[in-house]
Design brief:
This protein starts with a helix and ends with a helix. The chain is built from 13 helices and no strands.
């Protein structure tokens, strides 16, 4: 019994350390995005300067990725002085080939999209029942944090998903949180780290897809022992979203019901490009899913180190999720995800 109490104490300590940066992010996000951008906007307006929507959006992303997320990582380090998890250890040459990394990037995009498609169907049902306005197309592939996302017609809307997110999200979730959870067992760490990555996006239809995506990123990081392949996979996934948005943002189908033929003729080039994109994406998804099934059958890559703690899986999960900080973060993220949806 004494050993069980000590084990539970260790699990709660690991759990609280993992979710503390997410709690700090939530608090800082609410504070900074609610007040700071508005103060800056008002100050500029008093000088006769007005920010466009894309500029305002970029300013919010700068606060999130260049200030808030680094502060979250700093918080982790301050509360983990005696812990051996460091970002520096991930900055190394990958132990797998570029071909292996690209293969698992395709698997991550394809399998995560297919596995995460269920919430999209659920969201469609919720729309019919409650009249909600969740867009399945927007939520299916999107991996961005909760902000007012502008269509990527400017660099201000392209830089965050292609540069900021792959770097800072990987450093936080794979470089720190996943490595922090590894003592509880590699497979367990992949699952819980991925789940919190999904919840961190704070939008219910996105949670499942991004959770699976986070699990694959953890797996890539685990096998390569380098943060760079995970960043590459994250970049490629977000690139799929950016290309889609670049095409759709330039399509003007507002008059389709009134003038269907004229509207199609005016947009025929972009419609062909969008069709080719959809076909390529479908091929990517199918290829990723098939490769994943093949890897599951071979089972060579799926040998994980177990935890040295003597405790059942169910009790370990319960203890992890009921640690004080983790419980607060979980309830908050689920509540916000539902409300945002």
């Amino acid at each position: 019994m004494e050993n069980l109490k000590e084990t539970s104490k260790q699990i709660r300590k690991i759990s609280n350390r993992a979710t503390l940066p997410i709690l700090v992010y939530a608090v800082l996000y609410l504070g900074f995005t609610a007040f700071v951008p508005e103060l800056i906007t008002d100050a500029l307006r008093s000088q006769g300067i007005t920010l466009s929507d894309s500029s305002d959006n970029m300013m919010r992303y700068i606060f999130i990725y260049l200030l808030i997320v680094p502060l979250c990582m700093l918080t982790y380090k301050l509360f983990s002085k005696n812990h051996d998890v460091t970002l520096k250890s991930g900055f190394r040459k990958p132990e797998k080939s570029l071909g292996w990394c690209l293969k698992w990037t395709v698997i991550a995009i394809g399998a995560s999209t297919m596995l995460g498609g269920v919430p999209t169907l659920i969201s469609s049902v919720l729309q019919m029942i409650f009249g909600t306005s969740v867009s399945p197309l927007d939520s299916l592939f999107s991996t961005q944090s909760l902000t007012v996302i502008a269509f990527p017609k400017t660099l201000g809307a392209i830089i965050p998903p292609l540069i900021f997110a792959p770097i800072f999200e990987e450093l936080l979730f794979r470089g720190l949180i996943f490595k922090n959870n590894k003592p509880l067992g590699e497979f367990f760490a992949i699952i819980v780290s991925g789940l919190f990555f999904g919840l961190w996006h704070q939008n219910l239809p996105q949670v499942c897809t991004t959770a699976f995506m986070g699990m694959f990123f953890c797996f890539i990081y685990l096998r390569t022992k380098s943060i760079f392949p995970a960043m590459l996979a994250h970049f490629c996934n977000n690139l799929v979203v950016v290309i889609r948005d670049l095409i759709s943002s330039n399509l003007d189908l507002s008059n389709f019901k009134l003038k269907p033929i004229e509207t199609l003729l005016e947009n025929w080039v972009l419609l062909i490009i969008f069709f080719l994109y959809a076909m390529a994406l479908s091929g990517l998804i199918i290829t990723g899913l098939v490769l994943f099934i093949v890897e599951l059958v071979k089972r060579k890559e799926f040998k994980f180190e177990k935890s040295t703690l003597e405790i059942s899986g169910k009790r370990k999960l319960f203890t992890f999720l009921t640690a004080p900080v983790t419980l607060i973060v979980t309830v908050y993220l689920i509540t916000i995800s539902v409300l945002n949806t």
